[in-house]
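pls design
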């Protein structure tokens, strides 16, 4: 019974349990059945909540709108001091910052200097510089921007130092470029008009109209670059002052026997029908066969270049004029010039041609032409080609010199438009003169099948004729350099033409002597070698151009009365004396009468030479013509010679050397005592920036920003080949997928100067300029923060505050952080002044960048935030901090001003000042440039300690990062310093360390106490310093290690998989290279992640002890 009762009880218990469970489920279910209206919104409450939110939103919008309105500056009338917004904008906008300042600076007259005051100053207290005059047709490129940045930085620096500073602007009339622009403009008229339709006088008037309309564009762009030139002294190389100087220079050079007229080989543009300078020749390298169109030829036809053609000349006996059965094979890339061949040269020691010495050759198209085999060990390298060189003296520079050495006849085969001539009279240049001339006086008549043909049509015809005559031997690709006219794109043709030349030998010698003696410095000095190379091998300078726009040659040809002008060859040596050089026609008339009287003739008429002078001739006079030379004007007496000539290396000879030569010859003074040559600006791949490559960046595209679509459109609007467009477009899309962001002038200047390391070209990556926009933004935000904490702080006058900080009383109350930042400021000022004096512009930028970003923003501002943010704090410490901040910003902005003129002016004007100082405040550009002499002595030991301290801070931050301890989490730190004296000096820095690493506490240790440092992670700073962070209670070390071991377990099979693939030849031999490369990259990533996990485990284990 008892067992039954037990059984019943047991079942009852189970049933009861089930019942209870069921009830609980019912209760639970009932609990789950929540009120269906529980989410219902109380309309009254909802309305009140919405109204509150809307009100808060509206209030915030109103506050934001009010604040935004206060950041908008009121309009400033042009030329007046900029009216600043009441509040600084939250971020730096270069467009807003750079408004109005340039007009105010210019109108205030700060760019000029009175001649009478300058005359009272010694040479060491003057800084005078002329701008390299840009072409009046030009637009800015990065070379201009670099030039402006360097020159203006120096001008502003010297001006702030109190030197008599004058920076003279000007533009070049750019003869060929300007004439081409206006001619193209006329050709677009309906109907088209040529300059010949207008006549010379009307055409010149058209050019002057164009200059007045468009010529100031480049000057406005220079203003955008903040160039502080004296616009009141602006010169144009064809204005009356410069024109007077050009005429006088020409006459003086002629009177000295240095200017003369002669026929010599020059660069000729058939398209322009003018001689051009070497600088107006662009060279392109051809790797081999290349086809291209040529101006003056059928537009739908391409001609082949980069090909070597071999052909034969038959050898004849000079006595019988009959073939000997031998032949010589020559090769050329310019087959058409064989029409002007007069000889073939061989090396005198070449055994292959010994038997041909003294023999002659038969020209297939001119059988009566005497062609000698000549011996020349200068021109011929018997190890190259066939060892035979064809000689065309009238159309090749090397052949020209060979022709002079051997008194060979010169035969001009092309007319000025580049077509083959009908007839040619051989002539002699140098050599045996009349004797040789009589041997080759026979006129050469060109066959009808070739006469009148364009140059490169003639090339094709000659090749076919040689094939017909069985003289063609071979044709194959040949790398070559093709010379193009930079103005017309035409291929340069060397031609012998009558031109005006300057004998530069004696002037070049004086220019070399000036450098050797140290009177003239060329910086960097490595360029002296180039200087001597050019000037010790100087050639006569061709200064005449067959144009209408420019300085017309002041020379007249005198015809006698009743003389038949058609029979007078004014280019003949026999009539050389009839050329009259004079300052004006009246003076020429007097001279001509005297000259013709000696011939018992009377003057008939004077005809002025129609040619104009090379643009570089007037530019060569620029350093003294701008001051009124040849007159002894007050400006000339006060400012000449100038101090510095700054320009690019590429025009060292074409402009700089010529200025020196002409200055020494015409004024007997060097035009400047120092030449600083900045490097060539190239693209980031090291290629020269060129329109033909599509890699030219307009500085305004960087200053104002430019969309990618605008960059691409510019490529397609030019004359680039499709291959170059494709390449340039890809580069633009890779570099600027969203276009070039707006950087502003200051960032562009700083970015360019930061690249300027003496002796190196600048491979400019525009993205780095964007980095300097961020620098300007950081500067903006730093001042915005400081102005926010200044509150009612007003410093004493600038003089008083700088005097006070140097006193013992002030120094004794300063903290180490105050003395540190002033010491770093002192160091920065010393570096900047020294570097500007040495033209080390990259060092200038780096020193200022490091001071503002590293020392001031990253260190000092962070250290003083707890002090200056404390509104209740009225201590000496806070006052010292605010005073120190003011000094750093005032001196720092003045130091930075020459580099970044706009943002420094804007920020400097906002610094708080006493009412009297604020009322009379001028521009930062007229403030004194700061030097370390106005600051306390530099404390190098303190700087060393702070450097160590900052390394400790870095170590502390690294520990937080390594163990994922955020700044919000309190952590205890220890600094172990083995050096006792160093430890004592660090006592005053403990609070600052805690501030920067967000430490709960920081304790200095002299030894590694195991009890104190147990459970600490450590980071070794150096042999004497270690930073430790207490991890106890902050992390579960075992859990962290477990996570890392799990990561390693996941990575191991992946690593094994890719290693097996890599080591399997059967797999790698069949796999595509790109697949193998991707797998190798993955293996590297997995291996590195595994190693990082192992390193982390080791770190955790060390922390656990």
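designed seq:
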């Amino acid at each position: 019974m008892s067992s039954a009762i037990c059984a019943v009880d047991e079942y009852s218990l189970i049933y009861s349990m089930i019942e209870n469970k069921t009830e609980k489920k019912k209760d639970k279910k009932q609990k789950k059945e929540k009120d269906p209206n529980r989410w219902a919104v109380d309309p009254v409450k909802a309305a009140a909540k919405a109204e509150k939110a809307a009100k808060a939103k509206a209030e915030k919008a109103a506050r934001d709108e009010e604040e935004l309105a206060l950041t908008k500056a009121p309009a400033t009338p042009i030329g007046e001091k900029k009216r600043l917004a009441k509040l600084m904008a939250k971020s730096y906008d270069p467009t807003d910052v750079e408004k109005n300042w340039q007009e105010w600076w210019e109108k205030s007259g700060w760019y000029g200097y009175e001649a009478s005051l300058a005359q009272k100053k010694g040479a060491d207290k003057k800084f005078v510089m002329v701008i390299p005059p840009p072409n009046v047709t030009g637009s800015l490129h990065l070379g201009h921007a670099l030039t402006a940045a360097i020159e203006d930085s120096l001008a502003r620096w010297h001006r702030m130092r109190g030197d008599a500073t004058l920076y003279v602007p000007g533009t070049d009339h750019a003869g060929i470029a300007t004439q081409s622009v206006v001619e193209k403009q006329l050709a677009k008229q309906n109907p088209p008009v040529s300059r010949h339709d207008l006549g010379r006088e009307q055409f010149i008037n058209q050019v002057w109209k164009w200059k007045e309309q468009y010529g100031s564009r480049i000057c406005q762009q220079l203003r955008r670059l903040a160039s502080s030139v004296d616009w009141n002294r602006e010169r144009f190389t064809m204005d009356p002052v410069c024109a007077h100087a050009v005429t006088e220079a020409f006459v003086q050079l002629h009177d000295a026997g240095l200017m003369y007229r002669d026929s010599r080989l020059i660069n000729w543009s058939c398209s322009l029908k003018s001689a051009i300078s070497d600088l107006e020749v662009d060279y392109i390298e051809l790797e081999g066969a290349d086809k291209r169109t040529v101006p003056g030829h059928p537009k739908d036809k391409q001609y082949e270049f980069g090909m070597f053609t071999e052909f034969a000349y038959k050898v004849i006996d000079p006595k019988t004029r009959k073939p000997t059965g031998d032949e010589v094979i020559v090769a050329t890339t310019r087959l058409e010039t064989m029409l002007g061949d007069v000889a073939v040269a061989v090396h005198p020691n070449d055994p292959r041609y010994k038997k041909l010495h003294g023999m002659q050759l038969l020209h297939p198209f001119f059988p009566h032409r005497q062609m000698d085999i000549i011996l020349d060990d200068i021109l011929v390298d018997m190890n190259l080609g066939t060892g035979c060189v064809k000689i065309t003296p009238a159309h090749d520079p090397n052949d020209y010199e060979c022709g002079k050495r051997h008194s060979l006849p010169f035969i001009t085969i092309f007319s000025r438009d580049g077509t083959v001539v009908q007839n040619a009279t051989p002539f002699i240049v140098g050599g045996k003169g009349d004797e040789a001339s009589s041997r080759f006086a026979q006129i050469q008549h060109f066959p009808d099948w070739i006469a009148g043909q364009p140059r490169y049509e003639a090339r094709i015809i000659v090749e076919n004729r040689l094939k017909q005559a069985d003289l063609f031997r071979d044709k194959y690709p040949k790398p070559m350099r093709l010379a193009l006219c930079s103005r017309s794109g035409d291929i340069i043709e060397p031609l012998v033409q009558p031109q005006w030349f300057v004998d530069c030998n004696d002037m070049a010698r004086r220019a070399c002597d000036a450098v050797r003696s140290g009177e003239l410095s060329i910086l960097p000095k490595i360029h002296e070698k180039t200087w001597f190379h050019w000037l010790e091998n100087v050639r006569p300078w061709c200064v005449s151009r067959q144009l209408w726009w420019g300085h017309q040659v002041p020379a007249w040809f005198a015809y006698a009365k009743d003389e038949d002008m058609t029979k007078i060859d004014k280019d003949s040596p026999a009539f050389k004396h009839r050329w009259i050089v004079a300052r004006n026609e009246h003076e020429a008339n007097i001279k001509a009468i005297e000259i013709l009287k000696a011939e018992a003739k009377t003057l008939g008429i004077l005809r002025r030479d129609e040619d104009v002078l090379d643009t570089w001739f007037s530019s060569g006079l620029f350093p003294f013509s701008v001051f009124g030379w040849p007159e002894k004007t007050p400006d000339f007496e006060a400012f000449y010679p100038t101090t510095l000539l700054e320009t690019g290396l590429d025009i060292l000879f074409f402009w700089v050397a010529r200025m020196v030569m002409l200055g020494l010859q015409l004024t007997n003074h060097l035009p400047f005592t120092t030449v600083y040559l900045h490097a060539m600006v190239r693209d980031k791949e090291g290629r020269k920036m060129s329109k033909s490559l599509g890699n030219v960046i307009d500085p305004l595209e960087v200053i104002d920003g430019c969309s990618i679509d605008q960059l691409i459109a510019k490529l397609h609007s030019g004359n680039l080949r499709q291959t170059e467009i494709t390449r340039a477009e890809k580069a633009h899309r890779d570099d600027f997928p969203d276009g070039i962001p707006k950087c502003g002038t200051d960032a562009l200047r700083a970015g360019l100067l930061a690249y300027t390391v003496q002796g190196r070209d600048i491979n400019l990556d525009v993205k780095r300029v964007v980095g300097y926009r961020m620098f300007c933004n950081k500067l903006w935000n730093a001042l915005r923060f400081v102005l926010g904490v200044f509150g009612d702080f007003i410093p004493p006058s600038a003089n008083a505050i700088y005097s006070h900080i140097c006193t013992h009383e002030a120094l004794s109350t300063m903290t180490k952080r105050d003395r540190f930042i002033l010491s770093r400021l002192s160091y920065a000022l010393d570096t900047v002044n020294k570097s500007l004096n040495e033209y080390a512009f990259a060092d200038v930028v780096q020193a200022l960048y490091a001071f503002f970003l590293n020392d001031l923003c990253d260190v000092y501002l962070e250290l003083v935030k707890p002090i200056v943010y404390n509104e209740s704090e009225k201590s000496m410490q806070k006052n010292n901090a605010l005073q120190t901040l003011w000094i750093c910003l005032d001196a720092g902005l003045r130091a930075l001003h020459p580099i970044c003129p706009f943002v420094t002016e804007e920020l400097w004007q906002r610094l708080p000042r006493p009412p009297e100082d604020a009322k009379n405040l001028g521009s930062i550009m007229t403030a004194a440039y700061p030097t370390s002499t106005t600051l306390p002595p530099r404390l190098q030991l303190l700087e060393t300690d702070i450097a160590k301290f900052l390394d400790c801070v870095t170590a502390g931050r690294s520990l937080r990062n390594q163990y994922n301890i955020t700044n919000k989490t309190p952590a205890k730190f220890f600094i172990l310093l083995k050096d006792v004296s160093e430890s004592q000096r660090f006592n005053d820095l403990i609070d600052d360390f805690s501030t920067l690493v967000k430490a709960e506490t920081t304790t200095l240790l002299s030894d590694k106490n195991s009890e104190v440092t147990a459970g600490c992670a450590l980071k070794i700073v150096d042999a004497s310093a270690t930073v430790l962070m207490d991890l106890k209670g902050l992390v579960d070390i075992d859990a962290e290690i477990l996570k890392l071991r799990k990561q390693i377990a996941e990575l191991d099979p992946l690593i094994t998989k890719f290693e097996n693939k890599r080591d399997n030849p059967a797999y790698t031999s069949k796999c595509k290279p790109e697949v193998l490369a991707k797998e190798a990259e993955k293996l590297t990533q997995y291996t590195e992640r595994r190693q990082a996990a192992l390193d982390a485990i080791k770190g955790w284990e060390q922390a656990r002890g």
